[in-house]
Amino acid sequence: EDFLNLIFKAMMKDSLNSSHPVSSAVQSSEQIQEMFDAVSYIKGASLLLMLKHYLSKEVFQAGIEIYLHNHKYGSARSDDLWDSMNEITNGTLDVKKLMKTWILHKGFPLVTVVRKGKIISLQQEKFLYRVEPENWTSDARLL
């Protein structure tokens, strides 16, 4: 329950225009410090959990083991982790391409499902939290 609360707080922060991607190039030590916040840690953890469930626990763990073995006593980039996952899936899935759509962009997708009889349509768009004008009194603005 506590982790879910953290995820929702991070999602709220990530839905603001002031958010940032989980991974991005930095030019200064100040930019590095700015990157280590709830979006980076909690969204990053959520993305890894999502990937673990998508690949299966066994495949994900094997990919992590390859990654740790290949980069022990050294430094690594996020692409190195995705390459390890690609290695364990034998190239059947482009994990790097999949994960870059999540880590290189701020925010998250909102999927809207509409059902009309037997027809189901889906629409995906970037979710942005919009603060209503100050004179708005309904609690609906908090949803």
UniProtKB/TrEMBL annotation:
Pfam families in the cross-refs: Peptidase_M1
Keywords noted in UniProt: Aminopeptidase, Hydrolase, Protease
Listed GO CC annotations: cytoplasm; extracellular space; plasma membrane
Keyword S-adenosyl-L-methionine belongs to the record: no
Superkingdom of this protein's organism: Eukaryota
MF terms (GO), sorted A to Z: metalloaminopeptidase activity; peptide binding; zinc ion binding
Gene3D superfamilies: Neutral Protease Domain 2 (1.10.390.10)
Domain Peptidase M1 membrane alanine aminopeptidase stretches: 5-102
GO terms under biological process: peptide catabolic process; proteolysis; regulation of blood pressure
Protein name: LCAP aminopeptidase
Record organism: Zapornia atra (Henderson crake)
Gene: Lnpep
